[in-house]
Each structure stands twice: as structure tokens, then as C-alpha cells.
Amino acid sequence: MGKTNDILLTAVITAHDEGLLAHKTMLSVFEGLQKVKDAGYKYEVIVHIDNGDETTKKYFQRYKDNGEVRIFENKFGDTGPSRNFSVKQANGKYVAFLDGDDLMSSNWFIKGIEILEQATAETIVHPEAVLTFGLDIKNNVLSIQKPSYDREKDTLILLGENRWCSVAMAKKETFEKFPYKRVGAGYGHEDYIFHVEASNAGINHAIAKETVLFYRRSDKSRLSSGVSSCVTIPYMDLFDFEAVKKLTKPVPKTTDERVKSRGYRLYKKIRNNNFLNFFITPVAKKTIKVLDKKQKKQTVPKFVKEEWININHIETQLYPHPWILRRVVFYDADKQTAVGRAYFEIAKQVHHKPNYVFIVPWLIRGGADKVLLNYIQALKEIYPDWKFTVIATVPTHNDWVDQLPEYVDFIDFGTVSESLPPVLQDMLFSRIITQLQCNKLHIINSEFGYDWARKHKDLVGAYYTLNVSLFCDEYIPGSNARGVFSYDDPYLLEILPVVNKVLVDNKTIVKKTCDHNGFNDDKFEINYQPIDQKEFSSPKEHKQKKQLKVLWASRIVPTKLPDLVAKIGTQINGKDIAIDAYGTFGQDMDTSVFNGISAIKYKGPYDGFQTIPTEKYDLFLYTAMSDGVPNVILEATAAGLPIIASNDGGVGEFVKDKKTGLLVKDYLKPDEYIEKMNYALNHQEELQQYVAAAQKLLLERHSWEKFVQTVKKDIG
Fold first, then answer.
1. CA-CA distance, 181 to 530, in Å (whole number)?
2. Is the pLDDT of residue 462 over 70?
């Protein structure tokens, strides 16, 4: 069939492996095209089979002699180039797309043409209603689509939801001007990208009134699979942070969203309360009833019922029985503004395009947070023009934000997204990562970050350089040191193929992780954390004294064993050995843990080790269930204090017993710590030697210059 200029409409059917289901689609198409013909317009049908199976290809052969149908076969394996190919072949002034297993109400083609013929500006037309059906779904889902709003409202909705279905009709030139993108490796969906690009260009999306798309969905379809939730759209100009910042009227929460948000917060409160959680089933049921009453009841529009009845002669799955109508689920994309509003808040926290992005749980006083600051400072020294973004994924008070220099943006994702359900949190995070336009990511102890990388492994592997920092295992509180949580299993185990470097601060974790998971150690790099030589103090001259003053400084959380310190305190008399404890109590931590123990004085929180009057102390006591090479041990050594430490994680790589300190073999036995303290009390002349040896090790292995060289080799 040659090119003719009088064809008004090209109906494009994209087929893959629909098999005989395509027959019902074609019956629907021809019924609609008959109305086009009755109106005096000419049309053609293009069937484009992309990576089709034999059943599908065999079915469409029945149309090979139909003068109105042209059949093409390709192996693009991608919706974008498949649709673009069909546009090139089209002879019609207008092109309308339909998938090979969906059905359209018979008025779709003619009403779409009428809108385009009358349009005074470039327009894309969509059906008014989308009714989802299929053998694998229990309830039909009905969405009523609406035309374009103003740019600001469209932006906020499109940030979290594709406003329009993939069925679209427009001028051939419109599809040529905005070709569907070839995407893959974690990027999608092509129609979503097309809609965003068109909206950004000011193209109007119109709705053909009282038309219905009957969208067939199965548990084998791409949208029903886990693949759908693991893709994100690539960078889009419409979502540029600077552009979104300028929005003047963010859309308020809808009534439904406010109800759902309250319900979700209530659900989280229940799940986090051990007592309520015991009764979770009846409480949850009660909550659902309350929410249902709050929701505005909706009814299926008359035109949808009529078209639902009319399509029954083609597809007998479809008929609006009263019992089916009662179970219809209504979905309004225009009400899904939660992601857009959260993104608007985050955009205000973005001030530059970063060269490197860190993903952390929080920014508080702690060893991992000091590691973050060290990496930022080193990379800035190596690359003076670089800028950085730190994304915190846990909602908390990030009291070390003021430690960040002006060339670092801080995104408080955890707090902003707290009320969102997980699927929307993932969508929002993906938007942020994509729009930052930085291909260098670094995860430090963020479980959310690891889980995101796991879900979007194809995306990360194709477009990003991902580094992760690993320090140690974490023992689960209440498990008596039997239950272990670690980031290597399951997270690193799943994402290691797309990880560039695993950066560690000790050899112990490398051996443990490789032995536990069967890893090779080729991606592991040891970055011993640095200590500033300016912080060095000469080893304290230890003269024999009657009392040994011991310093313990830590976050006061279960993993740092404050209960063990309390037990030690109850077994020493306070005359020969006395302990001063510094630290901030963690949430749900017993703040009276040191109360009533005469040998221990709690001195309150501290803002960095340098704020503690270390010259008053003879010894630094370190306790923990698990750790790498703790930064506080390095700081205490630099301050001239000898160390007594538990032999956990990488501690033994720095504290060598009676060489660079005193090492306790069993970190859970208070008697062993007391034995080491008594040894120090009776051998005070040796303590100065330990500090001298430890400071020498600091200079050899933990100098700032050596750290910068290592970072440049492993990251730069």
C-alpha cells in the first residue's frame, strides 16, 4: 500500500505475545474504525509485532491481504523504538496507539479525531475512562482522566504519577517532535516520559469525553510485575530542582490523602508498639472501617456502564453486573500529589549540582558520621571544584548538620518522606537521585539506601558508580550477642555485582565478610580513617598514683554496652579506680543506667572528643559489641591516653595487648576489664610506652596524607 495524502487516521496496534487475545482487540478496533468510515474519513491500520511469539504472528497473518492493514515485524524489544518505527510508517495525519490486548469503546477514534480537527493548538488526546480488568485481578479499577491543568499543578502531579494512560492520539508531527525514548536498564516508562516532555513543552493533553479504554492486566504483564516498581524515569527538565523551587502554589492535600496519611501514621504507631502490635489484627480492622467511612463514596459514571455493556459482545469478561459495580476501585491520579509536595520541600534543600552523593541514615555524633566528614574533606582536597550532597534517610534530629561545609547540600529525606508509604518513598528517592544528575553514589550504613540499590540494581549497574562503606556487624539488641545484623548479608550479597568499591576501615571485616558470603576480596579496599596530627598531645607522664581516673565516652546505646560499664562500676570501689562517663542517651535507653553507682560519674553529653578535658584522665575505656577501628580510640590515642578496649571487630588491629594498649579478650565479661584496670593501676609506668607505640602507629597508618592518597586511589 503506497503513501496517500488523504488518509486521516493511522491506528497503530503494538503486539508482542498476546496470541489470540489480539483478536478481541482487532474486533474492537474495526468497530471503532467503522464510525470513522461512516463519517467520511479514510484510515489505515498498522500492526507492529515486536519480538512476537509464533501464535501472535500466525494470528495477524489473516490480515495480510486486507488492503487497510499493514503488518510489520521487528525485534526492538523496547516500546520506544517500536512506536517510533510505526510513526515513520504512518500515512495518516493523525496517529492513535493501542496495545495488542486492550480494547476501546467504539466512539474513541471518531471523538479523538473531532477534538484534533477542532484544536487550535498542538494537542494529545486520551480516553476519558480507563477500566482495568483481567482474570488475575479481583476488582476492576476505574480511573477518570482529566485534561491538562496549569504547568504548576501538572508538575506536582506528574512528579508522583503518570496522569494519562499510554493510549494516545495526536498529529503524526507531534509524535515525530517528541519521539518515545529508548530506555532500559532501570529507566521507564516510555509513555510517562513522553507525557512529561510534552507537558514541559506546553503541549495540551485533551480528553475525549465518554470514551473508555478497557485495559487488560494479568500477573504476567510488565505493570503487574516487580519490574514496574523498580524503574524510574530519567532526568526531566520539568522536574529540575530550580524550576520546582519557583512553584508558587503547591497543591494542598486532598481529603482522601489526609485520611490515608493519618491512617498510615496510626498504622506505624501500632506496628512500633509491642503492646498494640499484639492486638494488631483487630486494631487494623477497626482502623480500616474508620478510614472507609471517611472516604467519599463514588459511583461508576453512566457512560462507563453503557460502554461496559456495549463491549460485552466482544469480551465476555466485561459486563457491569451489580455485584461487580459494588467492588469497583476508584483511582484518581490527580489526587496523588504527596510525592510532588515532598519533592517541592526537598527542592528547597538543593542549591547545586553535586559531583558526589552520600547516602547515610542520619548525621549525628558518631563514628560513621565522622567517616562521612573525612571523605568529604579528602575529596574536596583532591578535587577543589567538587560539590557534594548528603541524603539522610532516617527521620531524626540531625544535630551534626552544622559540621557540613557550604559546598555540601543536606537533604533530609527521612523527615520529609516519613508519612509516605514505602512505594512512594522509593519513587521520591528515585526522582531525587535521577534529578541530581550525579553518577557517583556512596552508601554509608543506610539500610534504605541499600534497599533502593537492590531494587534498582539494573539502573545502578548501567548508569552509576556505587561505593559502599562497611565497618562491622551489628548485634541485635536483646539477642545476647547471638543475633547479628549486617549490611553484607543480604544487601551487599545482592548488589555486589554493581558495586564499584567496598570501602572498609579494618582487615577483620574483609575476612569475615568474604568467609561468610563466599566473596572474593577484589572489590574491598581498606581506608584506615585518619587523625589530624594537630590534635596530638604528648603521652602523659604516668607517676604512680593511688587512684586511676578512667574516661568512658560514647553514644549511650545498647551496642556500646553502657550496662557492662555499670556492672564494672559496681565492682570497683571508686577509690582505686573511678570512671567518668560522657555521652548522649539514645532513644529508649535507660537514662538511669549509671545512677547510684559511686564509682561512676555521668558528666553529660559532649560535642566532639576535643571538648572533653582529657588531661584529667589516666586511661580511656572503650566498650562495644561490634565495631571497625573506632574513631574515638584514635582520638583518645592522639590525646595521649592509653587504651583499654574490648577485642571486637577491627579494634585488635590497633590495640595490641601490652604493646599499644590493653586488650580484653571477652568483651562481655566485666571481670576482664577490671583485671586490665588493676594491671594498669599497678603498672602505670608502662602506660606511657603504650601511648608512644600507639601514636607511632597513628602516624604510620592513620595520617591525613595517607588517607587522602588512599581515597584518591580507591574513589578518585
1. 46
2. yes
Q: What type of residue is 282? A: P
In the chain, which residues fall in CATH 3.40.50.2000?
Answer: 349-526, 533-704
Q: Could you write out the DSSP letters of every residue in 109-169?
A: HHHHHHHHHH-SS-EEEEEEEEEEE-TT-SS-EEEE------HHHHHHHHTT---S-S--E
Closest CA to 642 of 692, 579, 578: 692
With 0.70 as the threshold, say if the pTM is over it: yes
Instruction: Write down the architecture of domain 533-704 according to CATH.
Output: 3-Layer(aba) Sandwich (3.40)
Say which CATH architecture domain 7-227 belongs to.
Alpha-Beta Complex (3.90)
222-236, pLDDT tens digit by residue? 433 334 567 788 999
Which CATH homologous superfamily contains domain 349-526?
Glycogen Phosphorylase B; (3.40.50.2000)
Classify 185 as helix, strand or coil: coil
In the prediction, which pLDDT does 542 show?
Answer: 60
Strands 499-504 and 524-526: parallel
SS3 content of the chain, % helix, strand, coil (to 5): 45, 20, 40
The pairing of strands 440-444 and 465-470 is parallel
pLDDT band at 362 (very low <50, low <70, confident <90, very high): very high
Is the pLDDT at 155 greater than 50? The verdict is yes
Contacts of 187 (CB under 8 A, 6+ apart): 231, 232, 233, 234, 459
**What's the pLDDT at 229?**
61
Instruction: Measure the CA–CA gap between 93 and 171, rounded to whole angstroms.
Output: 6
Q: Which residue has the cell 600507639?
A: 694
Q: For residue 542, what is the enclosing H or E element? A: none
- H or E element that contains 346: helix 338-347
Cell of residue 326, nine digits? 459494588
Residue 221 confidence (pLDDT) = 46
For CATH 3.90.550.10, the residue range(s) in the chain are: 7-227
pLDDT of residue 572: 92
Query: Quick count: other Cβ atoms within 10 Å of Cβ 150?
Result: 8
Q: Looking at residue 220, what is its pLDDT?
A: 47
Q: What pLDDT is stored for residue 540 in this prediction?
A: 66
Which residues make beta-bridge pairs with 621?
Answer: 644
Does the pLDDT of residue 286 top 90, yes or no?
Answer: no
